[in-house]
Queue: 4 jobs
Job 1
Amino acid sequence: MIARFAIPFFLLMTLVVVPLILALLFRYLLPRRLWRRTSLACTFILWVLTGYGFLLGFQQFQVRHIEYASADLPAAFDGYRIVQFTDAHVASMTQQMVQRAVDSINAQHADAIVFTGDMQNIWPDELPSQTSYFRQLKAKDGVFAILGNHDYAVYQDCDEAEKTANCAKTVKAFRDMGFDLLLNEHRIICRDSDSIVIAGMENWGIVKRMPRRGDVQKTLSQPSAISHQAFTVMLQHDPTCWREKILPECNAQLTLSGHTHGGQIELLGWSPVAMKYHEWGGLYKEGSRALYVSTGLGALIPFRLGLPGEIVVITLRAKALNDN
C-alpha cells in the first residue's frame, strides 16, 4: 500500500507539509517582519528543487569506474570488466531513458553484466514492454541478474495464490529479457585453466518484512559446490546482508548490492539514507573483502537531487600477495 501511494505522499510532504512546518517554526523563531518572507522564500526554493528533481534530476545518470584488487583473483582475469546496474524500476522510466541506459551499458564492452535487483515497481505486468530493450544487452560471458525486494510480491494487494503466480511472471519476464537469473545459484566463468565465480543470492535484509529468501550455503553449492578459495563475486540486492550473512558465512571477496538508491538526495557528500544504512553508496572494505553499493539507475519515486543514477564499471585486478 505504501509503495502504491509513494509519489502522492512524497509530493504532499515536499509541497505542503514541510512548508507548513517551516512556516510554523519561523513564526515562533523569527521577528514578525521576517517570518513571512523567510517562509515564502523557503517554500519557493523547496518547490523549485522538487520540480528540478522530478523533471531534470531523474533524467540524468553517470558511468562510474572503480577498481578492486585481490590476491585471490587468477592472473587470467586481471582487467576483467563487470558492469553493474541496479534498481531500474522501469515503470518510472521513459522508454528513451531505458534505451539510453542500455546503449551506455553496451558501450562499456563488459566481460559480464550484472543486474542486482528491483526491475519492477510493484507488478510483473510492468516488465514485458521492456523486454526488447534489455535483450539488446551484450557481454562476453553473459548477463546475470538477481531479484530485489520489489521483484517479489511484497507490495501487491492480492491473495497468496495470486502473489505466487505474479512471482512466477516476474521470473519469466527476467528470463525473457535474456538475463541468466540466479536464484541462490552460481555460475563459473573460465579463462583457459583459471576460473572465477559469479554467485547470486535471493533477497535477504535485516528488515524482517522484506523477502528473506537468500541462502549463502545454497548459493555456493548450486548447481555444484565450489572451492572455498575460488574468487567469488556475490550478487545480493540488500547491502545489510553483507555484514549479517556474507562476511561470516562465506569467503566471497567482492559483493555487489543496490537497494538504498543513495537516498536519491546527496548534499555535500551526505544523504539522509546514511541514518538508516551504514553502507549506502560506494565501495566499502573489511580487510581484503569489499562491498560496492550502487546508488541505482532509477527509482520508485522518479526524483533525484544531487545524486544522478549510475552505471558502474568494476575492473578486477590481480594483486600480488606481497602488495600493500
Job 2
Amino acid sequence: MGSKIVVNNYGSFDVTMVKGKGSTVYDVNGKKYIDFLAGIAVNCLGHNFKPLVKAISNQAKKQIHVCNYFVSDTGVEYATELLGQTGFDAVYFGNSGAEGNEAAIKLARKYGYLNGGEKRRVIYTLESSFHGRTLATLTATGQDKFHPACFAPYVDCFKTIKANDWEAIKTAFDDTTAALLIECVQGEGGVNIVDAEWAKAAAKAARDAGAIVMADEVQTGFGRTGTLLASDALGFEPEVVSFAKGAAGGVPFGGILIRGKAADVFKAGDHQSTFGGNPLACAAGLVVLKELTKPGFLESVAEKGEYIRKQIASWKNPNVGEIRGKGLMIGADIVDPKSALELEKKLLENGLLTSTAGRNTLRMVPPLNISYKEIDEGLAILKKTLEEL
C-alpha cells in the first residue's frame, strides 16, 4: 500500500498492518498474524497494552515535549527509577539504538583522549556484531556486508575481535585502546551467544590496558534475555550500556547508562538530542519498567524462551539446525539449501511474523508478555510451514 510513496530501504513486504491486541496483529484485509517479531524486539508489552495506552494518553494531555534547556517531571521520575533499577550513576536520553551507540562511541573517544591523548582512539567491537546504520555505528559493526564501497570512507580507529576467542584477548588491547564494546547477544549476526567467562576476561584485559568497557543492549536490554540487562547475567559490569528498542514499549526511545570511570566524561555541549527524553517516551518507559520489575515477570521471559526452543527441537525437523537464544531472543538455523528468507515469507503467508538474522537464521523476538496460547498458535504455524518446505 505504501511501497510507492515511502522509500523502501527495508525491502518491506506488501502487507499493511492496521491494529493489534496482545501478540496478535491484523492487516488492512483483516488477516490475523501471531507476532513473533514485536517490531524487532520493540513492542515488548505487545499491542494495545492498556496501562501503556493510558500512560501515553494521559501524558499527551499534559505535555509531549520539553526543550532540553529544561527538564520534565516525568523525565526526572523515569531517570530516577531507571537508575535505581539498574545501579548506574547517570543516563543520557536519545531516540534510537543508533543514537545510543553514537553517544557511547563519542564518550569512549573522549575518555580515551582524556586518559591517553590522541593515540588512545581505538574502539574494539566483536566480529558478527551490529551497532546501527549511521556511518560510525556501521563502521563499528563487525560484518563486512554492512560496509559497501558506496558509503566509504568509513570512520577510522575501529577494530574487531572474535567473540569467545580466548587467544585474541591476550594481545588485542594496548595503550591505543579507548573502549571495548560488547553486543551481549549478537542479534543481527545470527543470535550468537557471548560466553560469560570470556566476556569477563575480555573486559578485564581491556581495563588492564586502560580502556573502558561498554555493552550494546539495544536489542538485549529491558528484559529481552530474561534479566533486566543482558550484561547483568554476563557479569562484566560495563561502564556504559546503550539501550533502545523495548525501552518504551514502541515509543521511540534510546540512550546510554553511565557509571564509574565513564560517569563524568560528558560535559555540556558534548552530545545532544532534540527529542531525547521527551515526557511522552519517559511516561511509556515508566510503564515498561513497572511491568518488567513485577515479581516473576523476568523469570517468565526465560521460561517462555526455553519452552519455545525445546518445542522446536522436539520436532526434529531436518530443515532446522542449531537453535540458540536467551529468554525471548531466539534463533533457529535453517539448513541449506533452504533459505531463512524463504521460510520468513512462507510464515508471513501462513500468519506468523518473524525475521531473519546472520547468514541463514530465523529470528524470533516476540513480546515479553506473550501468552502461552499465542506461543502455541505461533509454533503450530511454524511447525506446519517447516514441514511444507
Job 3
Amino acid sequence: MKIQTVALAAALFLSACSQSNDSQAQDAVFAENRVVPGDALAMKSSFAPVVRTAAPAVVNISARGVQQVRDPFWGIPGQRQTGSVGSGVIVRPDGVVVTNNHVIANMQQIRVTLNDRREFNARVVLADERSDIAVLQLEGVNERLPTLNIDDREEQQIGDLVLAIGNPFGVGQTVTNGIISALNRTETGISDSGSFIQTDAAINPGNSGGALVDMDGDLIGINTAIFSRSGSSSGVGFAVPAAMVKRVVDSAVGGATAVVRPWLGVKGESVSADMARSLGLERPQGLVVTEVWPNGPGVRAGLREGDVITAVDGAEVNDQGGLNFRVGTRAPNDTVEVTVLRDGRRETVSARVQPLPGDAGTENATMVRSGVLSGAQVLALNPALADSLGGDPFASGVIVGRVQRGSYAHRVGLQGGDIILTVNGRAVTDVQQLMDVGRGSELTINRRGQRISGVIR
C-alpha cells in the first residue's frame, strides 16, 4: 500500500489512497463549547502560541536500510541501500517517540533530529502494521525532553481548527493549518480497522508520523495518508486518531511486542436505504449483525443476528471498519457499552471484549509433500490468524504461506496468501485434505477477496 520509490518512501499511502472515493464518515462524541471568532481582531490572532507549545515535541526521522536484490540480466544477488524520511512525536520525556510504521519498516538505522537540532539514534520498541503506528525509543537521553499530551477524549468537532506539524519533502519542520473535515472516516482503503480524522491542513510526503494538534496544543492524531493524484497535498489528508495512538503506546510502554486487538465476535453489513425502510428506521444507520461467533463476547452479551448495532460507548458505528476500530482501541477484557436496535426498541448491552480465539503464529505450518499441491506451505485458518493477516476473522479454509519456486504448487499458480476454500466441491477445513490432491481436481480459492475456481491439469 505504500509508495516504494526511495525518495518518497514516506509518501503517506499516496497511490492506494488515490484509488478509493467511497469512504464514509460517522458521528463522534462531541463537546459543545466551540466559539466562532467574534471580531476582526480575533480573526487576526496568531497560531504562534500553539506552535510554541507543540513544535518542540515534533521530530524529523531519517531511516536507512538494505534491500536484497537480484541483477535482472545476470541473476547475481546483491544489495541496495534504501531510505525514508518522515516525522514523529515525542510522547514521553524519556524519549518515547510515535511515528508511522511505514516510515521505519524494514530499516536498520533510525536517526531522529529534534526541533533544536539535537540528534539521537533510535530503536523500534513496537511496530503495528495494522494501525501504521510504530513506537521508538531514543538512545542516550539524559534529560527530560519536551512532549505532546495524547488527547484521546474525542471531543473534536467537524470545523475545528487544527495544525499539522512535520517534515514535508525533508525540508525541515513545517507547520500548516486547516480544519477537521470529517471524523471517523472509514472505508478509505488504508486499513480494514481504521477510523480516521480527515483534515484539509496541507500534508505532503515526509509529513508521515507527524502531529495533528488542536488549539490546546494537544496531540489528536498522527498524520498518515492523503488522497492525491499528483503525489502532493490536495487538501484531503488523514490522521490516525489519538485513541489508537495511545493504545499502541500503552502496549509498547507496558512491555508488549505486539498490539493485542480484542473483538466483539460479531460480523455485519452497513444498513442501506432499502434496509432502513424494511427495518422501520428513520434513516440508514448502524450495522446489521449477520454472524455471531459461537460462545464469543457478543453471544455472552446477548447480541444476536438481526440486531442493528448503532454505537459503541456512545460513538456512532455504521460499518464493520468502524466497529473494529471502536473495539480495537480497548484493551482485552475491557467492558464496552453496545447500543442496538432490536424489534424497534433501542437497548444497551454490556460486552467484555476479548482476544480473538486461536493461534496467530505460523510456526506450525505444514508443507504439502505429495500431489499436485506439493511445495505449498499451508495452515488452517482461525480467527486470530486471519485477523493478523488482515483478513476476515470469520473466514474458514486453509491459507497458503510460502510456495517453493519450481514446485508443482508453483506451476499450477498458487500464491502466498491464497485461501483454499474447496477441493472438488468439498469445503476445506484441515490441511490433511490437501495431501495427495490429484490432477483433474477442481480447486476454489479466495485471492485478495476474489473467488477463483479452476481445474488442475
Job 4
Amino acid sequence: MTRNRFASGLSVAIPVQGGYAEMRAVATALLLLMAVIYLASRVYEPLHPAIGFVKAFAEAAMVGGMADWFAVTALFRHPLGLPIPHTAIIPRNKDRIGDTLANFLRNNFLTPQVVARRMARIDVAGAAGRFLTNAPDSGGRLKAGASRIAADVLGALDPERLGGMVKGAISSRIAELDLAPLLGQALAAAIAEGRHKPLLDGIVRWAAKTLEANDTLVRDMVHQRAGSVLRWTGLDETLANKIIDGLQKMLTEMTEDPNHPLRAKAEEGLAHLAIDLQDDPRMQARVADLRDEIMANPAMRRWLDGLWESARAAMLKSARDPDAVLAGKLGDMLIQLGQTLQDDPRLGMTLNRFVRRTAVGMAASYGDGIVRLVSDTVRGWDAQTITDRVENAVGRDLQFIRINGTVVGGLVGLALHAVDTWL
C-alpha cells in the first residue's frame, strides 16, 4: 500500500509500514473498550464493591489513553482539526527538522575526524584482495561487472568519430614514420645474418618460372627486332632459342651455386641499397614519397576501414562475454594483484592510507554539500509529505505508546482507588 504526495511538483510514493494501521486500530479499540467498561461499571457499581476497582481502572485508562493519543497526534497534525497551540509539531517545523538532521549528520558523521577514525578500522586493501582473489571462482560478480562496463563504454562511443580518431592516429603515425632507415637497418641485419639468401633464392626461382611462362613473348620480341634476312633464313627462331636457353641455364646455375657471380652482384647491390636507405637523402625521399602514395591510395583507406571495423567488432564481442573480459592474462593479473594485497603488509598499508586520506578529503571538501543536499531535500518536501514519511517510520512504535499509556494509566488509577479504599 502506498500514499502518493506531491513535493516540489514531484509525485512521491510513500510506502506504509507493515503493521502500522493494525496497531493504530488496536490502540483505538483498547481506548474505546475502556470507555465501554467505564460506562458499564458506573451502571453496575452498586451491585458489588469490586466493580469500583474496575471503574477506577477504566476511568484512569481512558485518561492515560486519551493523553497519549493527544500527544502522538499532536506530533503530526492538529487533534480533531482544532488549531491548538504547540500541535502539528512536525509539519510546522519541517525546515528546522531538515536543518537539524543535516547538522547532526555533519557534526557526527561527516567531519574529517570521525571519518578518519572510522576508516582507520576498515581494511580496504584486505577486502579488495579477498574479493579479487575469490571473484573468478565465486560467481563472477567482478567479471559480470567488468563485462557490462566495458560493453557499455564501447557501445556509448560514436563508432564514426572513434573510428576516425583511430584511423587518423594510425595514418599520422605511419606518415611520421621514417621508413627508409628502418628498412636499411633491417636489410643490413638480414644480410649480416644470411637471412637474405632465401629471398634471393625466391627471386631466382620466380624469374625462372616467369621466363618459362613468357618464352613466347621473348620469341616475338626477337622476331620483331630481327632483320628481314634473319627472318627469311629462320635464324631469328634459332637466336630466340639461344637467348631463352642461356637465360634458363644462368638462372639454374644461380639456383644451384650459392657462389655464382651474379648472386654475388645481387648481394652487393642489396648491401649498397641498405647503405643508401640509411644514409642517402634522395633514397630516403623516394621511400617517403612511396609511403605517402600508398597511404593516399583508396585501397589503403578501405583496408584501414575494414581493419577498424574488425577490431571494434572483436572488442564488443569480447566485452559482452564475462568470461572473455577477465580471461587470460588480465584475469591472472587481477588474481595476482589480490594475492599481493593480502600478502604484502606495506602495500596494504599504503592503499589503506590512500583510501583513508581520500575519504577524509571528500568529507572535508564535500561534507557541506551533502549537508545542504539533505537540508534542501527536506525543505523541498511539503508538510504532508514529511509528516507521512516520519509517521510511517515511527508510527507503529507510537501506537505502542498509546497502548502502554492506556494500560499504565489504568494500573495507576487502580492503585489510587485501592489506597483510597483502604485508608
